[in-house]
Known about the structure:
mainly alpha; 2 domains
Amino acid sequence: MDKEFNQSQDTESRILQAAEKEFFEKGLAGARTASIAEAAGVTHAMLHYYFRTKDKLFERIVTEKMNMLEKMVLSAIGDNNLPLEDRIRQGVEHHFDFIAANHELPRFLVNEVYAHPERLEMMKVNMQDIAGEMLNNLQREIDEYAAKGLCQQADAKMLLIDIVSLNVFPFMAAPIISEITGNTYEDYDGFLAIRKKENVETILRKLKIH
Amino acid sequence: MDKEFNQSQDTESRILQAAEKEFFEKGLAGARTASIAEAAGVTHAMLHYYFRTKDKLFERIVTEKMNMLEKMVLSAIGDNNLPLEDRIRQGVEHHFDFIAANHELPRFLVNEVYAHPERLEMMKVNMQDIAGEMLNNLQREIDEYAAKGLCQQADAKMLLIDIVSLNVFPFMAAPIISEITGNTYEDYDGFLAIRKKENVETILRKLKIH
DNA sequence: ATTATCTATAGATCTATAGATAATGC
DNA sequence: ATTATCTATAGATCTATAGATAATGC
């Protein structure tokens, strides 16, 4: 009987999908379980049948998204098999593309971490170990280049913050930026392409790679 | 009778103060009028006596903060009586200081504009006129410098986005950044001082001002 | 037998106001 | 007389569950 997907699977995932949208848009407090159920096309009771409580459903979404936080940040460090300039270029571009494909994620995570910093603590060991290792490698490489006069000396941590800031903020503040610069949303894709190049350039010039 | 401030004035402003804190922390939906009243040290009914509804009270805070949005962005453009390098340096530093002194403001405004983009429309004419004028002036100056080979050609709008991104994002994502870089909050002021210099440098190198 | 779904509603939470009382300023 | 404050509660909104019924998989 491969007619259709399992109906119950479908219901559960449709609730999850509707919940993600509602929680992203309105936050935990602003979201309504009745609205989520309606958007998912199921009765309200089904939501509680599958996830028991609103909090548990939210928890489920947050956990899923928290797992993307690492990638969201660390992808900017790039592939360490490449020469430094290519590595930086690739890191910035991949990171930019990841954010563009998940442009609602940063606002959601920033709000959630602000509201519940303890959630971040749970990931502490894991996160710092991986990040520390990657940052040390990058720092060593920058030091080597700088020693040979091939680039400006730089702090790898600061560089990471630079990249993430330049890539993420324009998405979070997109409506405000459109407003101030007078950009219309019509040429938004064009704006993004230019922005991506700009960010690569900004970082490379900071490093003065020759 | 200059013994004390007018008691009613005091009540009103204490409600406003408590409301700002509650709304910044929890958003409109998450805030409770009873909590605000308690934090302000007045009975719950007083809140409604002074501001009628929760929405009107929120509106009052949002309007106040929306008026800071312009300064939040445009202060980064700097004083056009200064030579370009000093102007940029001053703009970045002033903007950084403004954000540091109002580090909760960006998250609040980003969320509010996301939830109600129409609010931004209301400021449209005003904002674009001022920003357009300032950006045109800055662009002209950059063009002149670039023509003389004194700096790299650059788009003033992109430069503004660069500055705001570099200055604002680290405050919004402060807990996450601390987590990843392993910074403790103890040396946070030191971190901020370094960060401010970094941002000035990043922008100046992008422009390659000689 | 178990899993999924529905209708109907209990119970919790929160905003807002009614109505009484005290303080303040002409 | 007007303004500010309090207590008590109505009324709205929302989450969660009870209890009945239909669908599914051994």
